[in-house]
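Need a sequence for this fold. Nothing fancy.
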C-alpha cells in the first residue's frame, strides 16, 4: 500500500511517498507563505521520483497540526481533494508527533516545540518506548517560559526539538539539563509522516475525509485581529 504524505503546518511545506519499502521519495521547501504555490508541483515531483502514478496511492496522510493557520488550511484542503479524487481513506498525524519521531532512539525526555508566533509555542512532551516514542502530554500552546518552567519541574535530561526552541533559545539556556536539537530537525518531516502513517495503515486506523479535524489550539490571527478591532 502506497501512502502520500502531505506536511504544511509550519513555514516549511513538503510531501513524501512510501509504503512497506520505506520512504521512496520526499521533497520539502522552506518558503514562507508560498504553500499553495509549492505543494502541487512537489506532489508531482515526488510521484515522478518514486516512479509511480497517483492512481497507485492507497492512503493520503496529512499533518493535522497544531501549526500556522494558513499552512494547515492549504495542506488539509489539498489532502482532502486528493483523497476524494482517488477514493482512498486518510490518516491524520500531529505535527508535534512528526517533530518528535526522528528522536525516538533518545533515552532523554523529548520536548517538541513549534513557533506559534504571537510570542507562543505549540508543544508536547515525549518519552522513548519499545518500538518508538510516546506522547506524554496533550499538545498545548503557550509562552516559551511556560514550557521552560515545565521542563525545569520535570528534573529530566531534555532534548528540545523544533523551531520554537531555536527561536526562543534564551528561555531555556539557564536550564543545563536542556539541549536544543540541531536546526536540521527544526520542522516536521513528510518522510516521518509516511513512516508513522504506514504503521497505522497496517492496523487500518483510517479516518473518513469528512471526519478529519485540524488541531488549531487557538483562533487564527485574522479572527483575533477582527475581534480586537471590534472591541476598540
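Here you go.
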Amino acid at each position: 500500500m502506497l501512502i502520500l504524505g502531505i506536511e504544511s503546518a509550519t513555514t516549511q511545506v513538503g510531501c513524501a511517498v512510501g509504503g512497506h519499502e520505506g520512504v521512496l521519495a520526499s521533497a520539502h521547501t522552506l518558503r514562507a507563505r508560498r504553500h499553495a504555490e509549492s505543494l502541487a508541483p512537489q506532489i508531482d515531483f515526488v510521484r515522478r521520483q518514486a516512479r509511480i502514478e497517483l492512481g497507485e496511492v492507497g492512503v493520503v496522510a496529512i499533518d493535522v497540526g497544531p501549526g500556522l493557520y494558513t499552512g494547515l488550511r492549504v495542506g488539509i484542503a489539498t489532502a482532502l481533494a486528493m483523497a476524494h479524487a482517488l477514493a482512498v481513506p486518510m490518516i491524520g498525524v500531529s505535527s508535534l508527533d512528526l517533530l518528535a519521531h526522528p528522536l525516538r532512539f533518545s533515552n532523554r525526555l523529548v520536548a517538541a516545540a513549534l513557533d506559534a508566533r504571537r510570542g507562543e509555542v505549540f508543544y508536547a512532551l515525549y518519552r522513548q518506548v519499545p518500538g518508538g516514542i510516546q506522547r506524554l502530554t496533550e499538545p498545548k500552546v503557550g509562552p516559551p517560559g511556560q514550557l521552560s518552567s515545565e521542563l525545569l519541574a520535570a528534573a529530566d535530561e531534555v532534548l528540545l526539538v523544533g523551531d520554537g526552541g531555536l527561536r526562543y533559545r534564551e528561555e531555556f539556556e539557564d536550564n543545563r539539563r536542556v539541549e536544543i536539537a540541531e536546526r536540521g530537525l527544526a520542522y516536521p518531516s513528510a518522510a516521518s509522516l509516511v513512516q508513522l502513517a504506514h504503521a497505522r495503515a497496517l492496523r487500518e486506523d483510517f479516518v473518513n475525509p469528512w471526519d478529519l479535524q485540524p488541531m488549531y489550539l487557538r483562533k487564527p490571527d485574522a479572527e483575533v485581529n477582527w475581534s480586537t478591532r471590534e472591541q476598540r
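For context: The two ends are 54 Å apart (CA to CA).
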